[in-house]
Design brief:
This is DUF427 domain-containing protein. 0% of the residues lie in helices and 54% in strands. The chain has 113 residues and is an all-beta fold. The chain has a single domain (5-112), classed as Metal Binding Protein, Guanine Nucleotide Exchange Factor, Chain A (Beta Complex), CATH 2.170.150.40.
């Protein structure tokens, strides 16, 4: 793992809200800090209402984390395109984020309760 990436348990209970609905709630979130970027909260897939997420064709590759798969979120009034992502088979050193999803905070609200 690159020395500039740190993964730790995110303290407290975390939620994702979109379109007036709670899409995820967990006490088992992970916080990934990468260099000077804003920390990203990763939610265990089991704590995400996956019925609201549709697999997207979007893929990106990070040299440190691997290939990210994206999901669009269907709300009552809109589709939030590529608003969540997951590293299904992350690179060595960041395996803890496997089975977790992160969310685009420009499209949804991610907050600690």
């Amino acid at each position: 793992m690159a020395d500039h990436i740190k993964i730790r348990a995110a303290e407290g209970t975390w939620v994702v809200r979109a379109g007036g609905a709670i899409l995820a709630e967990t006490g088992n979130a992970l916080e990934l800090t990468e260099g000077e970027y804003t920390p990203v909260i990763y939610f265990p897939r089991d704590d995400v209402a996956m019925a609201f997420l549709d697999t997207s064709e979007q893929r990106t590759t990070c040299p440190f984390k691997g290939e990210a798969s994206y999901f669009s979120i269907q709300t009552k009034s809109a589709t939030l395109t590529n608003a969540a992502w997951s590293y299904e088979t992350p690179n060595d050193g960041v395996e803890r984020i496997a089975g977790h999803l992160a969310f685009d905070t420009n499209q949804v609200t991610v907050e600690r309760l």
